[in-house]
UniProtKB/TrEMBL annotation:
<keyword id="KW-0813">Transport</keyword>
<feature type="transmembrane region" description="Helical">
    <location>
        <begin position="6"/>
        <end position="26"/>
    </location>
</feature>
<keyword id="KW-0472">Membrane</keyword>
<keyword id="KW-1133">Transmembrane helix</keyword>
<keyword id="KW-0407">Ion channel</keyword>
<protein>
    <recommendedName>
        <fullName>Potassium channel domain-containing protein</fullName>
    </recommendedName>
</protein>
<dbReference type="InterPro" id="IPR013099">
    <property type="entry name" value="K_chnl_dom"/>
</dbReference>
<dbReference type="GO" id="GO:0008076">
    <property type="term" value="C:voltage-gated potassium channel complex"/>
</dbReference>
<dbReference type="GO" id="GO:0005249">
    <property type="term" value="F:voltage-gated potassium channel activity"/>
</dbReference>
<keyword id="KW-0812">Transmembrane</keyword>
<feature type="transmembrane region" description="Helical">
    <location>
        <begin position="38"/>
        <end position="55"/>
    </location>
</feature>
<keyword id="KW-0406">Ion transport</keyword>
<dbReference type="GO" id="GO:0001508">
    <property type="term" value="P:action potential"/>
</dbReference>
<dbReference type="Pfam" id="PF07885">
    <property type="entry name" value="Ion_trans_2"/>
</dbReference>
<feature type="transmembrane region" description="Helical">
    <location>
        <begin position="67"/>
        <end position="91"/>
    </location>
</feature>
<dbReference type="InterPro" id="IPR028325">
    <property type="entry name" value="VG_K_chnl"/>
</dbReference>
<feature type="domain" description="Potassium channel">
    <location>
        <begin position="14"/>
        <end position="90"/>
    </location>
</feature>
């Protein structure tokens, strides 16, 4: 998942870079152009890809506007994929953490059971409580699925 996020970042940089240069080449020769330098071109490309769209710098040619339309859809796709991947990464790490805690609890229970003859009464009660809690959680999770 992390590779996907890095790939999306690289794709975003490439999209902004190529569209910035492209819009500059398309727009700058036009006499009414608002995009007359590369800084304005990259600003416009960034604002368009991120769907912010300030509107302070806009293409005036038909080809430039067509490029803007395409870039808007590309931007929406990149942002949607990025947010989905980020959400999946966060949920996955949370699930791994939960599984790790559950695994540690099971290991501790097994260790205590293997040494049951040496446990104090309160340790036995704690062990029983841990097993009950683990059982209840497993039943709850099973019902959810």
């Amino acid at each position: 998942m992390l590779k996907l996020l890095i790939s999306l970042l690289v794709i975003s940089v490439l999209v902004i870079g190529t569209s910035g240069i492209g819009i500059y080449l398309i727009e700058s020769p036009h006499e009414d152009a608002q995009i007359t330098n590369l800084i304005d071109a990259f600003w416009w490309a960034s604002a368009t890809v991120t769907t912010v769209g300030y509107g302070d710098v806009v293409p005036v040619t038909e080809l430039g506007r067509l490029m803007g339309i395409v870039l808007m859809f590309v931007g929406i796709s990149i942002i949607g994929t990025f947010i989905s991947a980020l959400g999946a990464l966060l949920i996955g790490s949370r699930l791994k953490k939960h599984e790790s805690v559950e695994s540690s609890t099971k290991s501790l229970i097994i260790k205590k059971i293997n040494d049951i003859e040496n446990l104090e009464k309160n340790e036995v009660e704690l062990l029983i409580s841990m097993v009950k809690d683990l059982h209840d959680e497993a039943k709850t999770n099973h019902k959810k699925n």
